[in-house]
Amino acid sequence: MASFILNGQDMAADVDPAKPILWVVREELGLNGTKFGCGIAQCGACTVHLDGQPVRSCSTPIAEAEGRAITTIEGIAGEEGELTKVQQAWISEQVPQCGYCQSGQIMSATALLRDNPQPTDEDIDVAMSGNICRCGTYTRIRRAIKVAAGIEQPGTEEE
Amino acid sequence: MNYLSPKKKRSGLAKWSRRGFIGAGVLAGGGLLIGIGVRSGNPVDTLAAKVAPGENEQLVNSWVKIDSENIVTAIVPHCEMGQGAHSVLAQMLADELDAAWDQVRVMQAPADGSYVVTDTARMFLAPFTLSAADWIEPTWDGLFTQMARFADAMITGGSSSIRSTGQHQMRVAGAAARQMLKGAAADAWDVPASEIVTRDSTLIHEASGKSAPYSEFASAAAEQPMDQTPKLKSSSEYRLMGKSKARTDIPAKVNGTAEFGIDAVPEGLDLSYAAVVRPPVQDTKVESMDATRAMQMPGVLQILNMGNFVAVVADSYWQAQQAVNVIEIGWSASKSPIKTMDDQFAAFAAALDEAGETGGKEAAAKGDAPGALANATTTIDAEYKAPYLAHAPMEPLNCTALVKDGKCDIWTSTQVPLMARTAVADTVGLTKDDITIHHPYLGGAFGRRLGAEYVSMAARIAKATGYPVKMIWSREEDTQKALYRCADLCRFRAGLDDAGKLVAYDSVFTQRHDPAEASVPAMYGIPNTAVRVAETELHLPFQAWRSVDHSQQGWFIESFIDEAAHAAGKDPLEYRLDMLEDAPRHRAVLEKVAEISEWRKPTGEGIAKGVAIVESFGTIVAEVIEIDMSSGKPRMTNCWAVCDAGYVMNPDGFRNQIEGGIVFGLTAAMYGELELVDGAIKQSNFHDYKMLRMNETPNIEVALINSGDVPIGGAGEPGLPPAAPALTNAIFAATGRRLRELPIAKQFV
Q1: Range with the lowest mean pLDDT among B118-127, B419-428, B697-706?
Q2: Does residue B656 surpass a pLDDT of 90?
Q3: CB contact under 8 A, A72 and B81
Q4: Measured in Å, how far apart are chain A's first and last C-alpha atoms?
Q5: What is the per-residue pLDDT across B97-119, written as a single tens digit (0 to 9) for each?
Q6: Between β-strands B699-705 and B635-644, what pairing exists: parallel, antiparallel or unpaired?
Q7: Which residues fall within 8 angstroms of residue A150, CB to CB, at 6 or more apart?
Q8: ∠ at Cα B103 (B227, B263), nearest 5°?
C-alpha cells in the first residue's frame, strides 16, 4: 500500500511499489493531465512535482513518493480553478499548439519561477531544456515565463 | 515557354458557390442548422463518382447551428492537432454571420452521426476541384488524388483547412445563415430585409427600433429560401478575420483538461491495456514466440500472436509494456535487399546512374536544358543526400477499441477518421455503419496520423479479447516501426553564362510524392530547366511528413541555388532577387527578410547568415538564419521569417505555425537521421533520435505580408522548407563548408 499526498489530498493506493507515478496517477487515480511521451525521462511530458521539485514521473516509482506530496497539472490552480500566473501567461502568449507537452512545460516553469522569480535566459534554458515540444513552441514558452515573472508585458489579442 | 507544372490559373469563390448545394434544417428544440456541400446530379458528377461511387446522396461538409440560447456553433470537419484550425474556422464563419465571438462555440464534426446524412465530410475534397484554385492544380494530381482513392476524405493535412474549408465552406455557411436570419426577421417585422443590419448575433431594424437575438428567428430562418451564392465580405468589412483572436482550445491545454486520444476513458468501460511489438523489419512476421516468462508477470491477462505483431494485454499499460519487453520472438527473414543506409543510397545512386544526364521521368521541362548546359560558360554539379525521418509526435500512437455485439467503438487521435473507420471495417469484418470513431485532440501528428494502421491493430486486439482495450505504442515502437519521411539522393547540374546568370538547371532524384510542384524551382526565371525523377523503391514505408517533398526538395534546391550564387561570385540574396524579376511577391518577401535581418550590414566575428526562400502550400516564405561559429560548432542565434500567404486570417496563430515549422525543420537539419542495422532502424527514443530543445532554439521573428487578391496560402507546413537550407547556407557563409548531407550536428563533432 502506497501512501502519499496528491494535489493536497491524502491518498492510499494498493499498487506495485515499482509502478511509475505517471501510470498510478493516470490509470489508478484518473488524472490524465500528466502525459506519457518517452518512458525514459527524456522528454519531460510527464513532469510532476514531488515535494515541490520537478521529477519525471514516467521513471519515478510510486514507492519514492511514500509519505511525500505529488502535485500534478490538475493541482496547481487555486481552489476555484483560478489559474496561476504561469497558466495565465501560457494563454496570453498563446503558447500551446497541440498542447500535449504543455502540462510538463508548465510544471517545469512553475518550479523554476517559485525558486527563481526573475530568471535570466540562461536560467530558463537550464530549467526548461529537459522538456521537448515537438510543435516547436519554445520561443513562446520563454516569453510566457518572462510574462509570468513580470519581466515582459503580456501580448494582446488585436492588431 | 512554360513549365508543365505548376499551372497558374485564377479562380475564386464565386465559381465554387454557383455549383455548391446548400441545405438547411431545423434543429430539435428550435434552431437553425445549415450545411453546405454537393450532391449527385450537380455538375460535379465526375468528382462525386470518384469520391462517392454509386451513392445517390447529399454530401455535406460543413455546418453551423444556432440554438435557442443564441449560441452559434461551428461544426468543423477538421481535427485539431495544434494548428489552430478549429478556432480559426469558427472565426471565419462567425465573421460572415456577424456573430458575437464570445457566443461562438466549436464542435468537432463526428466521423459518423445522426445529423450527418452519410459519409459526411468525405466531401472535404470537393472544394478543391469545384473552385479549381490555381494552387491545387498541381497538388490535385498528387496528394489528394492519392487520398481520394480511399473515398473517405475527411482529412486534415496539406495546410488546407483555412484556405479550403474556411474560404469555401465556413464563410459561405455563415453568410447564408445571416441572410436567412435577416429574411425571417424582415417577414416578421414587415420591413425590407435590406434595412435590417446584423451585429453581435443580433438583428436590428433601426427605423422601427426593433431588435432581436438570432435565436428568436433561428427556426423561422430555416424556412427561408436560401441564396446559393451569398455575398461574402470584402476584407475591409472583416471584424474577426485578420484578427489575432485567442484560440478556443488553449485554456483546456494549460490546466490538464484537454482530452487527447490517449486520455480516452469511455464511460462505463473497464479498460485493459495493451503494449505491442512489431517486426524490426516491416515485411517480416512472427515465426516463433516464447512468452512463458511474460505470461507469469503481474497483471498480464492475455498474450496475442497476431502474425505481424505481438500484443500483451494487462491491467496496466506499464505492466503490459514490461511483459512485452521479455517475450522472445523469432521473426521471419526480410526480403528487402537493403540492410544499411549505404545499401539504400547505393540503390538510389544506381537509379540515378541509369537515368544519366537526360533519362528518368520528366517532372518539369522548360527550354533546352541539355543544350544550354553544353553551351554554358561555367557548369557546376552537386549531389545531395537526405536521410529517413520519423514524425515523432509527442503523443505516442495509441487507440482504444471495443468490439462487441456486432458493433465497434474506436477512440483515437487521427487525421483521417473516415479512413480509419474503413480500415477497421476491413479488419474486424463489420460494416462502416457499425463502427463509431471518437476522435479527440491530437497530441501532434505532422502527417503520421494520416496513416491508420495502428487503429486497425487496436481493433484486432479488441476483437480477440472481446473487452475494451487501450493499446499504446512505446516510444521505441513509434520511432522504429512506423511510417517515414523518405530518404533521397538528388543530383544537380547548372550552367552559368558570362555574367554568372543561371541559364541551365537540371535535377534528378528518386522520390516524388507530393506536392508535385515541390521539385520545380518555378519562381526563378531560369530559361532552361529539366527536373527528372528516377523512381526507386524505399526500404522503409513512406508517409507524408510535414511539408512532404518540400522538406527535402526545399533543402536540395535552395542549397544548390546558393552554390550557384557563390559560383557566380554574387551575394546569395541579391543573386536570388535578380532571378525573381517576374515574381514580384517573392521579391517583396525576400526584400523584407533582407531588411528585418539587416542582411546588408556586416556581421560580427564568427557570425554568419544564410538565406532561403520556398513557396509551398500557397505561401511564400523566406528565412534568414544567423549562426555563431565561434565555438567551432554552429549555434543558431536568430531566425527571421517573412511570409506572404495572400491574406492571413489569424496573424498570431499563423506566426505560431511558422515558428513551429521552423523548429521542426531545424530539428531535422541538426539531428534528424534514422540509420539501419540489418534492415532495422537503430535509433529508438529521444536520446538518440534527438529533438531541438529550448537552449538550442534561436530567437524567431516572423513578419507577414498580406499581398491580397490571390488565393490564400496555408500555415502549417510552409515555415519548414526554408529552415534547413538557410542554416546550411549560413554554415557555408561562415566556414566555406558546403554541407550536402544531413544531419548537421554529427558533422561538427
Answers
A1: B118-127
A2: yes
A3: no
A4: 56
A5: 999 999 999 988 777 432 232 22
A6: parallel
A7: none
A8: 110
- Name the CA dihedral angle for A99, B622, B155, B710, rounded to a multiple of 10 degrees: 130
- Which parts of chain A sit beneath pLDDT 70? 157-159
Retrieve residue B275's grid coordinates.
503494449
Residue A35 has a pLDDT of: 98
Mean pLDDT score, B51-56: 29
Predicted ipTM > 0.90: yes
Check if A151 contacts B (Cβ < 8 Å): no
Render the burial of B607-646: b for 16+ CB within 10 Å, e for the rest: bbbbbbbbbbbbbbbbbbbbbbbeeeebebebbbbbbbbb
Q: Is B743 helix (H, G, I), strand (E, B) or coil?
A: coil
Q: Taking CB atoms and an 8 Å cutoff, what residues of chain B touch A77?
A: 255
Query: Do B685 and A40 make contact, defined as CB atoms within 8 angstroms?
Result: yes
CA dihedral B599, B600, B606, B610 (to 10 degrees): 40
Smallest Cα–Cα separation from B158: which of B471, B582, B446? B446
Alpha carbon of B626: minimum distance to chain A alpha carbons (Å):
16
Alpha carbons B80 and B653: distance in angstroms, whole number: 13
Match 428550435 to its residue by C-alpha cell.
B30
Rounded Cα distance, B5 and B10, in Å: 15
Asked whether residue B42 carries a pLDDT value surpassing 70, the answer given is no
Instruction: Give Dmax over CA atoms of chain A in angstroms.
Output: 56
Q: Tell me which chain A residue has its CA closest to the CA of residue B472.
A: A36
Residue B212 β-bridge partners: B203
User: In whole angstroms, what is the distance from residue B503 CA to residue B501 CA?
Assistant: 6
Better pLDDT: B419 or B602? B602
Interface of A with B in 74-103 (CB under 8 A): 74, 77, 81, 83, 87, 90-91, 94-103
pLDDT band of B154, cuts 50, 70, 90: low
Compute the distance between CA of residue B1 and CA of residue B161 in angstroms, rounded to an integer: 33
Query: Contact B175/B97 with Cβ under 8 angstroms?
Result: yes
Contact residues, chain B, for A130 at CB < 8 Å? 693
Q: At residue B637, what is the residue type?
A: T
B209 grid coordinates: 427600433
Torsion of CA B399, B404, B408, B413, to 10 degrees: -20
Q: By C-alpha distance, which of B715, B363, B646 is closest to B522? A: B363
Which residue of chain B has the CA closest to A38? B475
Instruction: For chain B, positions 589-648, list CB contacts with chain A under 8 A.
Output: none
Which of B252, B257, B659 comes nearest A136 by C-beta? B659
pLDDT for residue B136: 33
pLDDT the model gives residue B245: 96
Are A140 and B244 within 8 A, CB to CB?
no
pLDDT in tens, B61-108: 346 778 778 888 888 878 899 989 899 999 999 999 999 999 999 988
SS3 category, B314: strand
Grid cell listed for A115: 525558486
The whole-number pLDDT of residue B57 equals 26
Side chain identity at residue B677, one-letter code: V
Q: Residue B350 is inside which H or E element, if any?
A: helix B341-355
- Measured CA to CA, the distance from residue B155 to residue B78 in angstroms comes to 7
Residues 6+ apart with CB under 8 A from B140: B128, B129
Predicted structure pTM score: 0.91
List the one residue out of B392, B637, B354 whose CA is nearest residue B491: B354
Asked if B671 has any chain A CB less than 8 Å from its own CB, the reply is no
Q: How far B654 CA sits from the closest chain A CA (Å)?
A: 11
| B142, pLDDT greater than 70 | no
DSSP, res B441? B
- Find residues 114-143 of chain A whose CB sits inside 8 Å of chain B: 124-126, 128-142
